[in-house]
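Working notes for the structural subgroup meeting. M.R. asked for a predicted model of this chain before we commit to crystallization trials. I am recording the input and output together here so anyone reviewing the notebook later can reproduce the run.

Input as submitted:
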Amino acid sequence: GGTDPDMNARLYAALEKARRNSVTRDTIERAIKTGSGQGGEKTQLETVVYEGFTPHKIPVMVEALTDNRNRTGPEIRTLFKAGSLGTPGSVGFFFEHMGVIEAVHPEPGRDSETDAIEAGAQNVEELDAEEVPEGHTGATFLTDTKELAAVSKALAALGWKLQASELRYLAKSFPELTEEQHSEVGAFLSALDDHSDVHRVYAAVK
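Returned structure, recorded in token form:
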């Protein structure tokens, strides 16, 4: 919690995403004040995480941002009728909650592993080739959730341009599905993602 981005990893990630999408500073500051109850605004937004299984027992985590969990909860429960909604903690062990930073560097062949160590990241992986501009180096840096803001700033200082800096649930494994099952799971996940209060949907499916 809190309105200082340096102390609030989730807020930092949201601000970085807003800046990349060219959201104005006034809009960002107003959203911070509204979400924290400042400036006379009464809207109090909170993040609620729902855990459960899709059809065919695929673990899923749903992050919702709501001003009324008594409204959102029953609506999410209805969407889960095709699968099963679990209790808090019932599905989380299928995932790792990590800070994820996707970035590119203008120097071809840049040593991302060395920069990851210097910035304090826990791990580094290659970024999908289609996400990397020609002549650049791309990487996905993984961090502890509490270190997301610090590692993001350190990478930026090393010349990395951040394309994403956010908290995510990363699936530890991916159960096999037939083509028909994959289609059913996809429809279920799309229905969740279409809900107006749902921010992100994470599922153990490729």
